[in-house]
Write a structure and sequence with these properties.
Layout lengths: L3 H12 L9 H7 L2 H21 L1 H10 L2 H11 L6 H11 L6 H17 L16
Helix pairs in contact: 3-4, 3-5, 4-7
């Protein structure tokens, strides 16, 4: 028998599709259930909904590039995510700071800076764009 914390961590690992296959019989049954796939879908839908509402510029750009859902899934599976949408959106934008596409990197920096300024930050921001405007 394993403790409550181990069950909770095991369920989170199953939800985020990480870690080794569970050794516990209950967690193995959960891993094989169709309900887990449904729960993953609901969790992703909720994150997508929140990020589209809070990160409008980057969400629109990633949608045009065809990689928004993939980027959200990658972020969700690799990171601990906050239940607070403001923290979630800031963390997602910071996650994109290392994106391979320079336009995505610059846009995420811009939207992050904008979100900080709109919340009253006195911090100064400089965004370097990879392309010259004519």
């Amino acid at each position: 028998m394993i403790g409550l914390e181990a069950y909770q961590r095991g369920l989170l690992d199953l939800l985020k599709q990480r870690g080794p296959a569970p050794a516990d019989a209950y967690l193995r049954r959960v891993a094989d259930s169709r309900e887990l796939a449904m729960l993953r879908g609901i969790a992703m839908w909720w994150r997508v909904f929140q990020l589209e509402a809070q990160c409008r510029f980057i969400a629109r750009l990633l949608r045009r590039l065809g990689c928004f859902d993939e980027s959200v899934l990658s972020y969700f599976n690799r990171n601990n995510t906050s239940p607070f949408v403001e923290e979630l959106s800031r963390d997602f934008l910071r996650f994109l700071f290392t994106h391979p596409d320079p336009l995505v990197r610059s846009t995420s920096h811009f939207e992050y800076a904008l979100s900080q300024v709109l919340t009253g930050s006195a911090e100064r921001f400089e965004i370097l764009w990879d392309h010259l405007l004519s």
